Amino acid sequence: MDQIEIQEKVIDLLKTVYDPEIPVNIYDLGLIYRIELSDDATELQVDMTLTAPNCPAADFIMEDVRQKLETIDGLRHVDVNLVFEPEWDKDMMSEEAKLELGMM
Asked: DSSP secondary structure string, 53-65?
């Protein structure tokens, strides 16, 4: 797979990860801040946040992300970083997520 295909696969997989308390995937919630693939497309770094720093499902969500991304052919290393800067807010959600949650 080339870089573009891997990037698309990453996004597709992230859209299968949900916070158990929210019926919208973490990508559309705006919880993914950075997706960076190494030049040789073997290493992936993802910066993500949570809707709240004390989210009780944090470990579950992080492990779900890591396990799914590690299934991508050709990746030797996946690094998922939990960050809280900038602080997440509802404006980071996609239009679809806002619609799904009745915020539009």
From this structure: TT-TTHHHHHHHH
